[in-house]
């Protein structure tokens, strides 16, 4: 009953984004027609008269709003968003080209930050209260406040500009002349290090804060003191009792953080000119490439909703209180 | 006013400095932030304190004017977001009709990461500072709105609100007079965090290139500098990137430090640094003295406050001693101190269990928990780990057996003693009733055959009929196994009924013999039917 309500709200979010995508540019003063034809002082993109006319025709901007909307909905169902203005290629193709790069850095950052963040959080809770815990906490609190792009910029200046250890931008060296697949692999890894590291640093801090606060709460639960009273060693208390109880309510939040990471990739990929969908989104925003924007926002929303769904589906398997009892009321 | 931690003080100072910079700075700089008068990429000098940028604008002037923009956007967006959070939170918490609508709207907005949501809106609205302020303000209220709603929902059940409603206080009056003061700290935190997020978000969006290219803000300065390759060819990044980056870094970190919510009070517990207990090979200590528990001049302090005044007593082997007193008399603290559950530095005096010192200078105590003594907590429901089977919680405490089969057999035997079946081992605590959990707890206390049992209100959480049964079972088992029992209770009749000795605590102090006589006599008048 509760769950179907949740799925309903996911559906609502999807509808909300779909509507926002369509109506927002049209309801605002000017709207897409103005954006496309206007140019003027804001004109970031230069278009010839013929292009403008073709675009108006292509996007049916001369039709009634109703038929435009029907057209738009049809496109969504079939995943056909039309041609990207700046790339002159079908939107779905343009996006699919870029998805693997984002998955590479977001995936790496997710795995690393979950591991490091959770362990650091546990360590901190174990040393709580105390100086080690306090300084680690303040450091992480500070890091979590800094915008991602600043961290990326700092890393870029030190490791790429000053030290020349790692490449400045891109995902691989263009026209790398080597037949050895290993060289190509190393090249790709070297390019991915800084963007993935930036995302990891930001995300470690937030994972740490989640885990530390939850673990400190669990550490004060009577059953942890009881475990200590039973003469169990402190390592096993942390690993068996605190970790499991603290991680359980966090599972959902942690999976959702991966969605945050993907949103954060827009900034990080911009800093490192990394050709993932984040950078693509930035280009689409600046180039007013509406079909591409629609496609990207829809894909990102679907990705986030999928993560939500996964979190909801696996949670009952992890919590025996929900798994075994039919009543499922938590004390 | 609340007291600030040192990290919060640093936050206050930094935010104050940056606000001063935004107010005073533009008066100090003679150049306009957008005029192009000087040469390009000049290093810092007397006329251009922070040098000039790629098109020859004065960076100091841009930095201080940018401070105004950034702080203005931050304050306005945080203000709108906070007002919305509070207003909608109060409404949803207070009005049954509006609650479902507001709550599901908040849930919807919370599904998407706020950066994604803001990107969607900002990329279509584009535009100036006010569009940004509205976007940030209107999309970031749900998180705290839900917190405020939850606290209103629980406050509403409290007596003084009910009383105000009974006297037909106007809804608006109740909201502003009775409820607002309670959510004050929440509102303060919300404003500071929103301020921080708005600044970070503004900087991020400007950096991506969203927003009015003509405004001067820190994020915009970074974008200007970063998008040109000249910045990195020379040392120009030192004055083009470092100042605005440092400014953003300082303000966001300062606000994060400032907004740190007070940590909830730590419980009065010993540090988690102990090796696992083991069954001691030789157990001949204690021959010199027949006492199972010796407490000598023990005093327990919590900070500067003395919880237990110096006290001495012993529990004879196989004897039952009850520690009686009202709640708040220090009896639970006393019991926890005896078992070594409070921090070492807060205990003075000597405590021995089975001849082992419980607190030793600079080395771990040789008293093996659960082997030399066991300790039963007040509420069995809170004592068992909720997501671990009863069986595993037995096995991890069992030290006499080494193989899994032996452990299982011994656990089953212990369960049979308290009339519980084998199937309990595979069950989780939530599947058992309170009475069954109490029995399981007694069985668990027996598994290592300790000589001493400390029981803190072992039946306090049970209903009256089950209480009696469990209590009798506990006493029977203690006698069967010839254990010494230290019982902590406020149930004087029960204590009188079973104990060899009774110790009455009042406000952390043991009553003298005459006082105790009088106390017991008074109680007997209160409960005449138990006088035997």
Write up what this structure looks like:
The complex is a heterodimer of chains A (331) and B (532). Chain A has helices at 2-27, 31-38, 49-58, 65-77, 91-126, 131-145, 148-162, 181-219, 222-229, 234-271, 277-286, 290-318, 320-324. Chain A is built from 13 helices and no strands. In chain A, α1 (2-27) runs antiparallel to α12 and α7 (148-162) packs across α10. The radius of gyration of chain A is 24 Å and the shape is globular. Chain A has a domain at 100-287: MetI-like (MetI-like fold). Chain B has 532 residues and is of the alpha/beta class. Chain B is elongated, with a radius of gyration of 33 Å. The two termini of chain B are 57 Å apart. The model of chain B has no long low-confidence stretch (mean pLDDT 82). Chains A and B meet through α1, α6, α7, α8 and α9 of A and α3, α4, α9, α13 and α15 of B.
Q: Secondary-structure map with pairings?
A:
The complex is a heterodimer of chains A (about 325) and B (about 525).
Chain A: H1 2-27, H2 31-38, H3 49-58, H4 65-77, H5 91-126, H6 131-145, H7 148-162, H8 181-219, H9 222-229, H10 234-271, H11 277-286, H12 290-318, H13 320-324
Helix pairs in contact in A: 1-12, 5-6, 5-8, 5-10, 5-12, 6-8, 7-8, 7-10, 8-10, 9-10, 10-11, 10-12, 11-12
Chain B: H1 6-28, H2 59-94, H3 99-111, H4 114-125, H5 129-139, H6 142-156, H7 159-166, H8 171-179, H9 184-208, H10 218-226, H11 230-233, H12 237-240, H13 242-258, E1 291-302, E2 305-316, E3 320-324, H14 331-339, E4 347-353, E5 356-357, E6 373-376, H15 380-383, H16 390-395, H17 404-417, H18 434-446, E7 452-456, H19 464-480, E8 484-489, H20 492-498, E9 501-506, E10 509-510, H21 513-526
Parallel strand pairs in B: 3-8, 3-9, 6-7, 7-8
Antiparallel strand pairs in B: 1-2, 1-4, 4-5, 9-10
């Amino acid at each position: 009953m509760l769950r179907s309500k949740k799925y309903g709200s996911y559906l609502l979010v999807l509808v909300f984004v779909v509507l926002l995508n369509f109506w927002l540019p049209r309801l605002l003063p000017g709207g897409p027609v103005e954006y496309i034809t206007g140019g003027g002082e804001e004109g970031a993109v230069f278009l010839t008269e013929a292009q403008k006319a073709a675009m108006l025709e292509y996007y049916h901007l001369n039709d009634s709003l109703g038929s435009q909307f029907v057209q738009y909905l049809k496109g969504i169902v079939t995943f056909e968003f039309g041609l990207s203005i700046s790339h002159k290629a079908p939107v779905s193709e343009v996006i699919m080209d870029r998805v693997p790069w984002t998955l590479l850095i977001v995936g790496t950052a997710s795995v690393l930050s979950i591991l490091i963040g959770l362990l650091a959080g546990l360590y901190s809770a174990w040393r709580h209260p105390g100086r080690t815990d306090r300084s680690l906490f303040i450091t992480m609190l500070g890091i979590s406040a800094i915008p991602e792009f600043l961290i990326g910029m700092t890393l870029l200046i030190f490791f790429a500009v000053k030290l020349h250890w790692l490449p400045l931008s891109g995902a691989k060296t263009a026209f790398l002349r080597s037949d050895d697949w290993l060289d190509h692999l190393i090249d790709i890894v070297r390019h991915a290090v800084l963007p993935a590291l930036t995302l990891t640093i930001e995300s470690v801090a937030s994972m740490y804060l989640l885990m530390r606060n939850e673990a400190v709460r669990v550490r004060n639960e009577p059953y942890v003191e009881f475990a200590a009273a039973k003469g169990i060693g402190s390592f096993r208390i942390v690993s068996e009792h605190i970790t499991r109880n603290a991680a359980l309510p966090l599972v959902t939040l942690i999976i959702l953080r991966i969605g945050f990471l993907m949103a954060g990739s827009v900034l990080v990929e911009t800093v490192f000119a990394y050709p993932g969908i984040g950078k693509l989104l930035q280009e689409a925003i600046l180039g007013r490439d509406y079909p591409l924007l629609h496609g990207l926002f829809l894909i990102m929303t679907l990705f986030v909703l999928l993560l939500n769904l996964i979190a909801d589906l696996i949670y009952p398997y992890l919590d025996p209180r929900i798994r075994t009892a039919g009543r499922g009321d938590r004390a | 006013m609340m007291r600030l931690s040192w990290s919060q003080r640093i936050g206050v100072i930094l935010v104050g400095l940056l606000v001063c910079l935004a107010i005073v700075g533009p008066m100090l700089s003679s150049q306009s932030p957008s005029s192009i008068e000087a040469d390009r990429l000049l290093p810092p000098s007397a006329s251009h304190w922070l040098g000039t940028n790629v098109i020859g604008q004065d960076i100091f002037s841009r930095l201080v004017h940018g401070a105004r923009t950034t702080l203005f956007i931050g304050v306005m967006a945080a203000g709108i977001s906070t007002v919305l959070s509070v207003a909608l939170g109060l409404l949803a918490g207070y009005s049954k009709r509006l609650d479902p609508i507001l709550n599901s709207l908040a849930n919807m907005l919370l599904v998407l990461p706020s950066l994604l949501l803001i990107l969607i809106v900002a990329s279509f609205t584009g535009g100036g500072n006010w569009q940004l302020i509205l976007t940030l303000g209107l999309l970031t209220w749900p998180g705290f709105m839900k917190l405020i709603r939850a606290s209103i929902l629980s406050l509403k059940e409290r007596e003084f609100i009910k009383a105000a409603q009974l006297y037909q206080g106007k809804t608006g009056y109740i909201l502003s007079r009775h409820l607002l003061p309670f959510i004050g700290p929440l509102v303060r935190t919300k404003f500071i965090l929103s301020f921080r997020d708005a600044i970070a978000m503004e900087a991020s969006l400007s950096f991506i290139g969203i927003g009015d290219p003509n405004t001067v803000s820190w994020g915009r300065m970074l974008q200007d500098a970063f998008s040109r390759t000249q910045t990195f060819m020379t040392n120009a990044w030192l004055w083009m990137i470092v100042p605005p980056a440092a400014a953003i870094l300082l303000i966001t970190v300062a606000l994060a430090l400032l907004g740190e919510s007070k940590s909830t009070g730590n419980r009065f517990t010993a540090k988690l640094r102990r090796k696992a207990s083991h069954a001691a090979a030789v157990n001949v200590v204690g021959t010199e003295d027949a006492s199972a528990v010796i407490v000598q001049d023990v005093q327990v302090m919590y900070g500067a406050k003395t919880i237990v005044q110096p006290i001495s007593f012993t529990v004879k082997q196989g004897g039952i001693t009850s520690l009686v007193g009202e709640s708040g008399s220090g009896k639970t603290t006393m019991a926890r101190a005896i078992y070594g559950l409070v921090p070492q530095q807060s205990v003075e005096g000597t405590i021995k269990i089975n001849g082992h010192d419980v607190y030793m200078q600079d080395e771990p105590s040789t008293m093996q928990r659960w082997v030399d003594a066991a300790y039963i907590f007040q509420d069995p429901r809170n004592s068992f780990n909720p997501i671990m089977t009863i069986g595993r919680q037995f096995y991890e405490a069992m030290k006499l057996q080494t193989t899994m089969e032996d452990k299982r057999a011994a656990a089953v035997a212990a369960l049979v003693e308290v009339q519980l079946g084998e199937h309990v081992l595979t069950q989780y605590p939530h599947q058992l009733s309170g009475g069954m959990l109490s029995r399981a707890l007694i069985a668990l206390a027996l598994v290592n055959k300790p000589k001493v049992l400390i029981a803190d209100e072992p039946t306090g959480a049970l209903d009256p009929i089950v209480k009696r049964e469990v209590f009798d079972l506990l006493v029977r088992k203690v006698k069967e196994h010839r254990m010494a029992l230290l019982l902590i209770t406020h149930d004087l009749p029960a204590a009188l009924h079973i104990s060899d000795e009774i110790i009455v605590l009042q406000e952390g102090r043991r009553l003298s013999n005459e006082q105790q006589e009088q106390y017991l006599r008074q109680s007997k008048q209160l409960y005449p039917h138990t006088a035997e």
